[in-house]
TrEMBL record:
<dbReference type="InterPro" id="IPR012340">
    <property type="entry name" value="NA-bd_OB-fold"/>
</dbReference>
<feature type="domain" description="Replication factor A C-terminal">
    <location>
        <begin position="10"/>
        <end position="104"/>
    </location>
</feature>
<dbReference type="InterPro" id="IPR013955">
    <property type="entry name" value="Rep_factor-A_C"/>
</dbReference>
<protein>
    <submittedName>
        <fullName>Replication factor A</fullName>
    </submittedName>
</protein>
<dbReference type="Pfam" id="PF08646">
    <property type="entry name" value="Rep_fac-A_C"/>
</dbReference>
Length: 112
């Protein structure tokens, strides 16, 4: 699919805490040492970016989520940077929305 993107409904933070090795989401403090229940490895909780978007072409609009590497490429901020800004009480929604609005994207969509 290819189309133009706009910022989706961001009802959550633009970041989440995840296990460093497999990126599984955990509601734990960043820096916590854990053994992951999914991959059975031991590592730390880190911050990952997560930004909801809409992708619209001539026929439809789909909802998608951008994660760390794609967020860095499109927005120029890591999950850790988004967390730091949010911790200061600053909302990045307007700035991010303006930066990505109508950006042309090509993506592959998997259906399950």
């Amino acid at each position: 699919m290819q189309g133009r993107i706009t910022l989706g409904l961001a009802s959550q933070s633009l970041w989440f805490s995840a296990y460093n090795n497999c990126d599984k989401k955990f509601d734990l403090q960043v820096g916590s040492d854990i053994r992951c229940s999914s991959c059975n490895q031991r590592s730390q909780i880190t911050v990952r970016a997560r930004i909801p978007i809409y992708i619209k072409d001539d026929t439809e609009t789909i909802t998608a989520v951008l994660y760390e590497e794609d967020v860095v490429q499109l927005v120029g901020r890591t999950g850790a940077e988004l967390k730091d800004v949010e911790d200061q009480g600053i909302s990045m929604l307007k700035k991010i929305g303006g930066r990505i609005k109508n950006y042309h994207i090509v993506c592959y969509v998997r259906f399950y």
